[in-house]
Amino acid sequence: MRYTQSLRLSQRLLPFRFVEEADSALRDRVRLVLREHPGSQRAFAEQMGLDATKLSKSLAGTRRFTPAELTRVAEVGNVTVNWLINGSDEVETVAAAPQRSAVLARTTDAREAGRHQQILDAAWHLIAEHGYHAVRIADVAKACGISAATIHYHFPGRDDLLTEALRHSVRQAFDRQVAELHSIEDAHERLLRLVDLQLPKPGLLRLEWSIWLQVWNESARNPKMGVLHSDSYTRWHDTIARTIREGQQQGVFVTDADPEDLTVPLTALIDGLGIQVLTERPGRSVERMQQVLHDYVEREIVRR
Which residues bind DNA (predicted)? Predict the structure, then answer.
């Protein structure tokens, strides 16, 4: 009797032990990022936009990193959120693994990585705000406060810089997805969160949508960009399909339809509504888009 009670207790504690071990491993990886990054821990926190005390508490385990903080750790530290959480860039968990053409080129030198990151940040913001063909190397150099020669040291040509900036935008989006979704076990809740992460809200998400619109446009005329678009979009599509498949296994989604057949119309609906919101079609708002998408999920995908 005493053995049975002990066994039941250990079974209840197992998930908590697993979470604690995962959190401990994540903190170890953040510490590794800090050791390899030039400058102090306080300077790293400042670059993240995080109070240094909060970073210390998160490393000590007295508070947990928020999804936004994990995304910033990854960005500043030149790693991926997938690596921080799971120990690998390519492990498939809540999001599909990246396709080869969508993988962002990285340098192993920490100081050079910081400059590389600064250039990409400036370039993708300029592309999102002014357009792919309107951005010049001189514009990026001015935004960074550096010379055009420094830009060329990291990126041989303008097309190299702009293509890497697009990859950077894609990685940002998927880092945020992994950070936001990795702790959500219920597939229904996770799917709705995935939908919400695609809403073109003012700020970062709207800028990312601007990037995607330009990728679609360039893909129609540039085969190399078409490959990048296809691989990036495949990952997004597969992440949705993976979530729907898991929801079917959990019994929360309809089981008489192939996950692919449910994914295609949902992603198409997200794309179409997002374009309408960005182009400010009358009656199309972020709030209306969210309502339509949530209603669609409840009507077509959720099991009654």
Answer: 136-155
